[in-house]
Amino acid sequence: MNKLALPLSIIAILVSIFSFIYLKSTSELVYVDVNILLDGYKRTKIVRVEFEEKANTLNANVDSLMTNWQNELKLYEKDRAKMSKKELELKQELLRNKQQQINNYQQAIQKQIQEEDQKASQTVINDINGFVKEYGKKNGYKIIFGASGNGNIMYADETIDLTNKILEGLNAEFEGK
Amino acid sequence: MQNLKVNSVFIVALLSLVVSCKKNSFNSKEDLLTFLHNEANGYVHHKTINGVDFTLTYRPIDLLVEQELGGNIDKSNIQISREKYRDYIYFNLSISRSDQELLNAAAENRNKFGAMVNQLAFGMNDKVHLFTKSKDTLEIIDFVYPRMYGMSRSTSMMFVFLRSEDHLDEDYLNFTIEDLGFSTGEVKFKINTKKIKNEPTIY
Fold first, then answer.
1. Percentages (nearest 5) of helix, strand, coil residues in chain A
2. How many of the other CB atoms lie within 10 Å of CB of B6?
3. What ipTM does this complex have?
4. Taking a C-beta distance cutoff of 8 angstroms, is the pair A129, B187 a contact?
5. Which of A64, B45, B92, B175 is the most exposed place for a label (fewest CB within 10 A)?
6. Which residue of B has its CA nearest to A134?
């Protein structure tokens, strides 16, 4: 029986060391700077470029309609002296209707651009949130604060700043490394 | 006597190792579903973004086998059926807003409703993607969207992807859903490939 005591105690010590090292959850308070993550994440730039391209195309459609309308207006102003009263009324009505249609279209396009902007930003935020959550779980953090520069974290020691580590991991994951 | 004690300790340790490495096998579909729906087991993933709830569940082959065979279970049937399904990976995706189907949530006007029906019935293969850590895409084979006409609390679809063992050798797969018009952005789930390789079985 005495012979078993020594190996058993060694196993017990090893198990405790193992649990201490691997199973401990760190209660350290840590934070990330959300603005740095947003700026430094490589997908942000790609998503922004895609959004700008879409927005430019949509705005270009509105611009070309506006140019057509302005040309028609110039033509009307040039020819109005030659027109009868009836023709004037009809042309004015036509121009008013066209202007109204262009305004409606412009509003719809602005709404669409806003939605595209929201989609693009949310995609990047989803990626960051997902990665931070996974990182926190993996490394046993109970909480990771997000500083966004508007006063929710006024001071924090640099040693508990995880921003660079998270950014590195986030970019590595995005690039498939 | 001492040798006998050491041997028994060794056998117990070996048995526990074997038991812990054993695949999850269940006696009934209900037991398997209970296991699958426990998030801790890694087969179901949830996310809520801007009030839209996403639930992604891996669908093991044996659930499809069970569905096909019903009560007609014998070993040869099971094997034949498993062979038929094993070349693909199956996922169930549920999406809801305010505990309602997406169509109800999107029914602001006739045009939006029509566009959403079209999207869900015919266009989801362009919105959902499955790819590896190194960005290799697993081909989407098909998807099924059963209309529930507002009787369900979420929009549920099944997606079928081509299974490739090379892709399953990577650590995880990314399952992404593009924005469906609810300002959620792209939503991503990371699926541990070990869970797919060691999927639970019924029989």
1. 80, 5, 15
2. 11
3. 0.80
4. no
5. A64
6. B190
H or E segment to which residue B142 belongs? strand B140-144
pTM equals 0.81
CA distance linking residue B94 with residue B90, whole number of Å: 13
Cross-chain CB nearest to A115 (options B47, B183, B190): B183
Confidence of residue B153 (pLDDT cuts 50, 70, 90): very high
Q: Cβ contacts of residue A10 below 8 Å, gap of 6+?
A: none
Q: Tell me, yes or no, if A123 comes closer than 8 A to chain B by beta carbon.
A: yes
Q: Do A126 and B5 touch (CB under 8 A)?
A: no
- The residues near A70 (Cβ < 8 Å, ≥ 6 apart) are none
Residue of B nearest to A125 (CA): B185
CA-nearest residue to A116 within chain B is B183
Q: Does A134 touch chain B (CB under 8 A)?
A: yes
DSSP code, position A112: H
How far apart are alpha carbons B30 and B24 in whole angstroms? 14
Cα-based distances in Å from A107 to A26, A50, A53, A101, B181:
51, 21, 19, 10, 18
Chain B, 101 to 160: residues with Cβ < 8 Å from chain A are: 132-135
Q: Indicate the pairing of strand B187-192 with strand B172-177.
A: antiparallel
3-state secondary structure of A62: helix
Interface test with A, best of B56, B170, B174, B186 (most A CBs within 10 A): B186
Q: What is the spatial distance between Cα B127 and Cα B136, in angstroms, rounded to a whole number?
A: 16
CB contact under 8 A, B188 and A125: no
Q: Which pLDDT tens digit goes with each residue over B19-78?
A: 444 568 898 889 999 999 999 999 999 999 999 999 999 999 999 999 888 877 778 888
